[in-house]
Amino acid sequence: MSEQSSSVVSSQLQQNVAVITMSNAPVNALSTAVRKGLIEHVSQALENDAVDAIVLTSSLALFSGGADISEFSKGLVEPSLPAVLDLIENANKPVIAVVSGPAFGGGLELALASHYRVTFADNKVGLPEVNLGILPGAGGTQRLPRLAGPAKALDMIVTGKPAKAKTLPGVFDVIVDKPEELQATVMTFAGELLAKGEAPRKTSELVIDKAQAPEQLFAEFRKGIAKQARGFYAPERCIQCVEAAVNLPFEQGLAKEGELFMECMNTPQARAQQHFFFAERAASHVADFDKSTPVRDIKKVGVIGAGTMGGGIAMNFANAGIPVVMLEMKQEALDKGLGVIRRNYENSAKKGKLTSEDVEARMALLNGTTEYNDLADVDLVIEAVFEKMDVKQAVFTKLDEVCKPGAILATNTSTLDVNEIAAVTSRPEDVIGLHFFSPANVMKLLEVVKADKTAPDVIKTAMQMAKTIRKVAVLVGVCFGFVGNRMIEAYSREANRLMLEGAKPEDIDKVIYDFGFPMGPFTMGDMAGLDIGYFVREGRREFIAHDPSYCVVADRLVEQGRVGLKVGKGTYLYEQGNRTPIPDPEVIEIAKQEAQKLGIEQREISQQEIVERILYPLINEGAKILDEGIAAKSSDIDVIYVYGYGFPVYRGGPMQYADEIGVNNVYEAMLKYREQLGDYGKAWFEPAPLLAKLAEQGKSFKQFKRGE
Ligand code: NAD
After folding, report:
1. 341-387 residue pLDDT tens
2. I want to staple 410 with a disulfide (CB 3.0 to 4.6 A). Which of 274, 310, 434, 642 is the partner?
3. Using CA of residue 256, residue 260, residue 261, residue 266, what is the dihedral sign?
4. Given the residues 40, 89, 129, 559, the one annotated as active site
5. Ligand 1 within 6 A of 306 CB?
């Protein structure tokens, strides 16, 4: 047995088989070093007369996670992945990929270019490139349809979702039950191939049976994904690649893939989606703690208030197998809250998402109480009572009395000062904000709010706990509305003002929908209830008194009881049992009258102005938030907006969007509207100092470093 190795790829001769092993921790990314290592070791094996067959495998949990995305920005460094795959596919000795763990992107393409593939039944493989705004660019779109069939390949390439190996019998020559069986199996398989004198079998030479890919397959597929792919550039290009695989010879199909890959790679969408990929991961890297910071155990949780939020929050923990004690003041409220949770779970069971045993198991983890003493042993308690400071302070005073030392005391407040809440306790270092979004059991975002005295281990525990309950946590500081709601205020205010200036709500909504949000501001307002915004304004009249136009139409609607979808009437009208908004000329008339009273001349407003007026003040507020350190980095704001507010991921979030279109252009537009809109412009379009600074320096938000 002889052995050779480079740092990340090594080879070993086992009888007459060269076993080439990748070990580029943590995920076997196909970095330049791995690609070079593969070329080197495969070439040597081909030249070595003692080698009759080659096995490619991994020493890590993953076979390979795919391309090293951090190399994308550096441009291509030779050898390219297609060059590696060319060498493998054209090898004159059989190459067997032992897909010993998950294989994604380039990792799967490597296996597809090998002559044979061996794996285990539950292994997962996929081509997730579409999620980065691109497509598999190393032959994946041409080889997967040849092996898996065009329909399955379409689904995997266009949705980016992984598939279990056992659903891909065309792709794998041998599928064993358990990963432990792989090693022995592959040696037997190699021996059999050699004994039979099987020649290398090139995937590129396989012919797709056209009957499997009639025209209507593609037409129907396009129709089926139209909604989820709306606005995205890459999915359609993925489909075109699979069409090419079906209709063109391999070499031409490969050329088409290369062409469309470059097209995708050069789009703002690819930049945005790749930015977002890193943004999401970076959100959990927090300067407040490091590896040495301890983490507190969260084995039991208390939730105060079994209303809309409390119920959803409790469900997250029950779903993760963590017991919860829910506290209400009255038994009726408790019964009602638990009843809503049960119905929620039962609905999921009806849809087949849960079994009835799951429902019972989760309900068994949820216990109700009206006694604070029952919270004596919880490790974390989350308060979700009415949004009133005195009520919250009373709750925290009680919690301070009954909770054990070291318990984390959290509030789900949307707007109140977490410092003031912490101040009523004897342990402000244990107090933190955990701002869930509604519906709390569904929305992935969690703003973790650090108060002045919150301890680093409390922050670290909260960030880790978020992962346990499958949330994406972003650490933010204390201010009114934190990051998300503070910025959305600017967005809603401008939408309302545009209506006064003559834009119709349905036109504004359409522009924002076309920008890529799931719905426009007026549809969203009606769904949330216009009364919610009204109550917030009631508490802030002194801050908005200088602007008599501030959301006046929304105020009039609420005064008339038109509070939105729940009463069938808000900015729009709704037919019973139907959530489709119907434009209402009466609302446009109200806007007209209010505009007249305020001396605002109504006019035609362009789509571009709508986008700029609604999104630039939101970005401007983001700049202030960044400058104040309420968000640590601009990418954190992007994560909040994509996960909490439906900002289109293909634009990367508001700050990435600003970076893409140019911070200076946002700045110039702010100045333009400040001049054009008179007193209103002066009040709301003053550029944030950081926006001005970055614009002057020609920098992006991404380049911003605090203290520079
Ligand atoms: P809700 O009215 O649906 O529920 C509040 C619950 O708290 C009620 O069941 C009430 O009986 C109970 N309660 C009130 N005082 C109590 C006390 N002293 N002790 C125990 N229980 C008490 O309200 P919600 O929408 O669930 O909001 C709760 C909190 O979550 C608020 O702070 C709100 O700002 C915040 N929040 C709400 C949303 C949202 O979209 N609804 C989103 C994020 C955060």
Report:
1. 999 999 999 999 999 999 999 999 999 999 999 999 999 999 999 99
2. 434
3. positive
4. 129
5. yes
